[in-house]
Amino acid sequence: MSFVQTIKADIARYARERPVRFDVATLLLVKEHYGLQAVLVYRLGQALLSKKDKVLWWPLVAIGSVPYVLLAAWMRFGYGIDLRPSAQIGAGLYIGHLGGIRVANCRIGSGCSIAQRCQIGAPDGPGPLIGDRVWVGAHARILGAINIADGVTISAGCHIARDLPARVLVAGNPGRITLRDYDNSRLL
Fold first, then answer.
1. Residue-range domains of the chain with CATH
2. Under 8 Å CB-to-CB from 11, ≥6 apart: which residues?
3. Which residues touch 24 (CB under 8 Å, ≥6 apart)?
4. pLDDT, tens digit, for every residue of 139-187?
């Protein structure tokens, strides 16, 4: 998926969740779109990182790095949303609440949702591999090199310490499968 298609998927996801008028001023200035703003800043960082090895792009990377660093700091300290460049995040990520979100050293598939106070990724080394359409509830922690398949629903306060099969509902600390063949399409 191209950069522009990914941005369109991100915006479409937010437009579906919070139907409003989307223009540049609204996206950048309205505080209700903090999740989308954080995702767009992350996408800017990923675009700059993808061009850093191409000599012809170095001037643009140098110029774009300054606003990226300032915007990423604002997302981190102003909104409490820390999407690190070490994470690989698929199109259509939805962050519904601000505060205490940290995503690093992981791979997140497309169409996922993350609630407030979530930690995803290992501080050092390989982190989790999360499939498509995964819903992560508030205060959840997914740390370490684990695999989470497509369509998994992780309830609030859940701490995941092992691999999870597709389409399950997980709850508790440590996380345990409470329902199999669970359809989370209404949540996403």
1. 3-80 (no CATH), 88-180 (2.160.10.10)
2. 22, 27, 36
3. none
4. 999 998 999 999 999 999 999 989 999 999 999 999 999 999 999 888 7
Say how far apart CA 78 and CA 127 lie, in whole Å.
Answer: 26
Among the listed residues 132, 128, 140, the one whose alpha carbon sits nearest the alpha carbon of residue 97: 140
pLDDT in tens, the chain (188 residues): 788 899 889 888 887 766 656 666 666 666 778 899 999 999 999 988 888 788 777 787 788 889 999 999 999 999 999 999 999 999 999 998 889 999 999 999 999 999 999 999 987 888 999 999 999 999 999 998 999 999 999 999 999 989 999 999 999 999 999 999 999 888 76
**For residue 34, which of 76, 84, 86 has the smallest C-alpha distance?**
76
Cα 80 from chain centroid?
13
Q: Which residues contact 147 (CB under 8 A, 6 or more apart)?
A: 128, 129, 163, 164
